[in-house]
């Protein structure tokens, strides 16, 4: 295991031995990738190297919020992702365009992505249909049920419930750790930020206000005299709608498709992740992990900053 930037590496890994430096480095492939996470320390870095063998060099190291990040170059092997996950770390190839310091567009899912819950499940618990609705949600997010049909089935169970239960859920929305810091950083660099959600405006409107987002789109409950009717108003925001939203926003804000990022966790996010310049699966369902460009299993929302800052580092080489 070798490095080009000893001063930077030893700042974050004081135990890093100078014997890892060599005048004659083996010929390496051109693949660059990052290993990162809150639990990345010298011992884990060494364990990762031992599993991989002498197949990479370290180019750089830095911190992002509470994550430690190392930039590597080597002969990429698919099993390295498994090795990283065994150490509770995330690993990603840097083969995308967006950079933190180059303004772009982020479109994110809401439930289980921007926030830690599925709002419809929490509403249903208060309405007395929690077990049924949670079961339907899980199947829909895994891609086992048509999203629109599953949404209408879940909302139908809420018929006759008071609008007040929506207020209760909104007052206790648990934001995903790292979300606020990430959005603030992106906005400082001129990024446009948006939510495209299969959830509901009751919650996306709230997030738009507190996070100062540029745009949100989601579904609407039909409410009459303070009572939920069990119906959804207007067109349902499904996978196709999310993907189209990202493309339309990129055009509206004059952002090239390569500079767009999408992040989500469920099957109805796959189309959006596919059309984005960078698609990230955050703590996602198996089907999404299998198809997404980047998989984040251990870091929180701030994984986006780790990924985007890696391209900034590469431009300095």
Automatic annotation (TrEMBL):
GO terms for molecular function: hydrolase activity. Keywords: Amino-acid biosynthesis, Hydrolase, Magnesium, Metal-binding, Serine biosynthesis. The keyword Magnesium applies. Residues 30-93 form the Phosphoserine phosphatase N-terminal domain. The keyword Acyltransferase does not apply. It is an enzyme of class 3 (hydrolase). It holds the Pfam family DUF5609. This is Phosphoserine phosphatase. Pathway: Amino-acid biosynthesis; L-serine biosynthesis; L-serine from 3-phospho-D-glycerate: step 3/3. Signal peptide: none annotated. Its EC number is 3.1.3.3. Belongs to the HAD-like hydrolase superfamily. SerB family. It catalyses: O-phospho-D-serine + H2O = D-serine + phosphate; O-phospho-L-serine + H2O = L-serine + phosphate. Its cofactor is Mg(2+).
